[in-house]
Amino acid sequence: MTAYLQSLMGFEAGWFVGTLALILLIALPLMLAVAMIIYVDRKIWAAMALRRGPNVVGPFGLLQSFADGLKVFLQETIIPSGANKGLFLLAPIITFTVALLAWAVIPFGENMVLANINIGLLYILAVSSLGVYGVVIAGWASNSKYPFFSAMRAAAQMISYEVSIGFVIIAVVLMAGSFNMQDIIIAQKSHLLGINAYGINPLLFPMAVVFLISSLAETARTPFDLTEAESELVAGYQTEYSSMSFALFWLGEYANVLLMCTLNAILFWGGWLPPIDWAPLYMVPGIIWLFAKIFFFFFIFSWVKATVPRYRYDQLMRLGWKIFLPLSLFWVFLVSGYQMIDKFGLPL
Length: 348
Fold this sequence. Notes:
Elements: H1 2-9, H2 11-48, H3 64-74, H4 85-101, H5 120-129, H6 131-141, H7 145-176, H8 181-187, H9 205-218, H10 230-233, H11 243-268, H12 286-307, H13 313-344
């Protein structure tokens, strides 16, 4: 599309319009997806508790998220008198923007990626690390003790689990031999027993589990939602927010949840490849397989939220630093050792 627009409008104007169109092609459906997964999230929780969930607004309650969005849009934006106004308003914008940036390198199918860069995985790791700034700024700028405690918790929690996520990613990169997202997916084709996934490899399956649990912690989902523990911190860093500033936090949070579900699917379960390397399955578009895998992981996220009680903060830190960090570091040595033996053979 970009090449066609460049032929009509010239190189620079065509590139700008084409890239903008592709960005909107990702961002707008993503916002719609966020609205719908909030609905799905609530339906899953309701089903787990033998309730009906949203069922009034629209057919089967499908328009409930849009009604909620309209409600917060029409509310008044209240800024506490003691807050730092500029930073207070900047924080949700940072959270929302950073949540969208990472999707630039996500491959939705073969040749279906906005920016197919060689360091796509490093880009995602760097961009997702910026998300903590929105939370910390929100907590500090609110000039209130509960948001501030929440911000401190969020900073410690995200740093703790990004370390283990980083080592897990190193193990995947060692197996794939590339930081490029498409190359990582293609490297999983017929990986073991004709299955397109690293997750079935006994060497990488433990890392798939560690990455899934770390994803829950990184997105502050139950049982790791210590940043929003309502029994202790009211609503955490969002306590003083209302109207669209509050909605931006929610949109950013669920966009991050979708991103982590997508990364689970791409890094360990074949991304847009079908589950089995069987020719008829390739007739189904890759984007359908990717969406099915994303939904499966989102169901796990919701299932855990509906059934698992919240950790204490010392348990959260212990899991991150005393269990996941040494385990993932050991697995990096294990995978690199396997790769060396596979490539050069056993030393005599």
